[in-house]
Amino acid sequence: KQVVRVGWGAGFQGDRVQNAIKLITHGNLDYIVLECLAERTLADSIARARSGGKGYDTRLSEWFNALLPIAAKNNVKIITNMGAADVKGAGKEAAEIAKSLGLSDLKIAVIAETKPGLSEPNGAVGCTYLGADCIIEALAQGADVVIAGRVADPSMFVAPIAYSFGWDLIKDFHLIAQATLAGHLLECGCHVTGGYFAHPMGRDITFESLANQSLPFCDVSADGSVVIGKLKGSGGELSVRTCKQQLTYEIGDPTCYLTPDVSVDFSQVTFEEISPDAILAKGATATDRPSSLARIIARPAGVKAWVEVGYGGVGCVERARWANKLVHGWLEEQKPGIMKKTKSYLLGHNSLYLQEPNP
Description:
By secondary structure, the chain is an alpha/beta fold. The chain contains 10 helices and 14 strands.
């Protein structure tokens, strides 16, 4: 196969299922990636597992009941990190859902660390950021659905692309760099198709266009060329400027963007508009990969609480400030020094820019 198409179906735990359904139905995809895990949601999953609840994504049933039938019908493979802190539990539920839908023949693979729950100091729980290699192995075994936990976001794209073309993760660094570029541009979903550009001042997207946004996909060729696309005729904006803005998202040093698969240099990346629905991305390079993997540690860090009191009408700002002073005095009287760990904001007045000074 000369071109593989990978779609982005979810960019966070609370994403909408409907957009992914549209992309699978109309996008002519080979794969779809559901990226539903972040550091906070992973910590939440660990906490749930510790208390006897589900350690994987609580919306797995909603997603899989909706997507498995149409993915099977359209021959689209699913890759997701919904396994969070309990990939085996996620795999078990996914298999039960597939069976209930008459899809018992679907091959479901789960990816877990060889030492799950590796002990950390003070009762903390750690999860390692895995790379594309484990997903490639699952695909090589014929998996239709791959469920992982904490896998680096771009690696979920690198895996199906590298697998499709037989690229070597150890040798084909420039090709892996381009696949990583594709994954990085798509990892926030609609951000690259105009979500960043919805501000009514200085933007030229109408509300109707924004409401008709498409999730993005990438077409990657065997030579490493990458085209970022959206559904033909959809709204939003996919352009050089949306790609440039997404490129800078959470990369740190642009000459050394680290993933488990490769150390990428994004500094020479360029974009070229092919059509209103397609952008050519090129210029990502690499010469090596990190010698170690990152690990996230979830540990007890105390309790955070918040309280809101509402005020409206004449003098509401001043009345709110008086209330803040009263609460400050009451808490200080009960536990001296506690207000040094407290922040106060007047929502709707200054909360986006600064906090209220301690009285």
